[in-house]
Amino acid sequence: MKQHWLVTCFVNFFIASVMGLLLRLMYVTPVEWINFQFLLHGHSHVAMLGWVYLMLYSLIVHFFLTKEAQQKAVYNRLFWVTQFSVIGMMFRFPVEGYALFSIAFSTLHIFCSYIFCRQIWKDAQPSSLSEKKLLRAALVFMVVSTVGVWCLGPAVGLLGKASAFYQIAIQFFLHFQFNGWFLFAVLALFFNQLKAKIDEKQFQLFYILLIVSTILTLALPVSWYLDNPVFYWINALGVTLQLGAFGVFIKIIKPKIPIFFSTLKRIEKIIYGFALFSLGLKVGIQLIALLPGLDQVSHQIRNFVIGYIHLTMLGIISGFLFGIALKNNFLNPKKVLTKWGIKLFLLGFVLTESLLFLQGIYLYFGLGEFPFYHQNLLFASIFLPLGLLQLVISIYSNKHVKFAVND
């Protein structure tokens, strides 16, 4: 992998985390010159499109393309055009929210993602059928998710931003980004890292169940805006199938994990274990949300929404990305800066998630605000950018590691 690609991804993540820290500061003390909603848009776009998207871009190019294909000029040019769009969103969203320039940069990012999909579909040579299927499903979900974005303009023009059409279009995009493109891509990379022979029948069952459940569980966010009991039952079927999918997933990886973990250093074992645990926790939370009334509460109590999004984004997706980076020495696991950066990030994640869900529980039972909730959340959030800053410095100083022949 190109070192400057990796540095860019982690710098984007650091900036997104600083934006998140500012958002939490605004709950403690007024910051008159910052528009909260605009900064929130900037934070989410930089985290999703500047960190996760570009990190997946970099790892997919590195692991699924031949050295000859990696050297094609289109991948380097496309990376920097995509990063240009991220920088545009980074500066424009906090200033204007959804307006001319921020929408223009977002649109540029979408067109870059289409080119990326086309190139990877053509050039990728995964080493196994499981990797190939998961990678292609990820790319399809990425393209499908953008249908939600293209619906936003007509939704505003016809019915306005408060309409169910507009809100569902946003949820459509987010659902197939997080549960489709992001999750399937990291699973493809995880199977690549396992480097083990997978039972094709078991994998096929896992794959089909996961695809169907991903589509069906869109019914939950739709049910928040369209009051019809059929959406509850569609989501319930999707969650059940998802549980079955990850039951098969455990069956597939269980005999491989001891061998895989035996090759890892302690910090790598911690981060992979953390990612897998977060994945199991996500499936468990979706099951709990099937309890009568909790499907709507999960949306109405904002702390639960933010906690769940961060569990997926920071726990599962970023956890697997960190694990892959450590295992392949893109992040040097022997460096003190790397170890402390990872530990501080994990500490910040655990503390903030605990506070978010604890506050959500307080609200659910009508107990009001957890004592000094916002102050504690602000303090806990400091560990996230602090850890990421150490990782950026660690990567930048990682001169002795050979990242790639085309660096």
Question: What's the helix and strand layout?
Answer:
Elements: H1 3-25, H2 36-64, H3 67-70, H4 73-96, H5 100-123, H6 129-150, H7 152-158, H8 164-194, H9 200-216, H10 219-223, H11 229-253, H12 257-262, H13 266-288, H14 294-300, H15 302-327, H16 336-364, H17 373-381, H18 383-396
Helix pairs in contact: 1-2, 1-17, 1-18, 2-4, 2-5, 2-8, 2-15, 4-5, 5-6, 6-8, 6-9, 8-15, 9-11, 11-13, 13-15, 15-16, 16-17, 16-18
How does this structure look, described?
It is a single chain. The chain is an all-alpha fold and 407 residues long. 80% of the residues lie in helices and 0% in strands. Helix 4 runs antiparallel to helix 5 (100-123). The radius of gyration is 21 Å and the shape is globular. Residues 400-407 have low confidence and may be disordered.
For the structure shown, list the relevant keywords:
18 helices; 407 residues; mainly alpha; globular; 80% helix
Give a summary of the structure in a few sentences.
This protein is mainly alpha-helical and 407 residues long. The protein is 80% helix and 0% strand.
Number of strands: 0
Q: Share of helix among residues? A: over 70%
Order of helices and strands: HHHHHHHHHHHHHHHHHH
Taken from the alpha-carbon principal axes, the silhouette is: globular
Could you name the ranges where pLDDT drops below 50 across 5 or more consecutive residues?
A: 400-407
Main sheet makeup: none
Number of helices, where a helix is a run of at least 4 consecutive DSSP H or I residues:
18
Question: C-alpha Rg, in Å?
Answer: 21 Å
- What is the residue-mean pLDDT, rounded to a whole number? 93
Strand content: under 5%
Through-space gap between termini: 7 Å
Helical/strand content category: mainly alpha
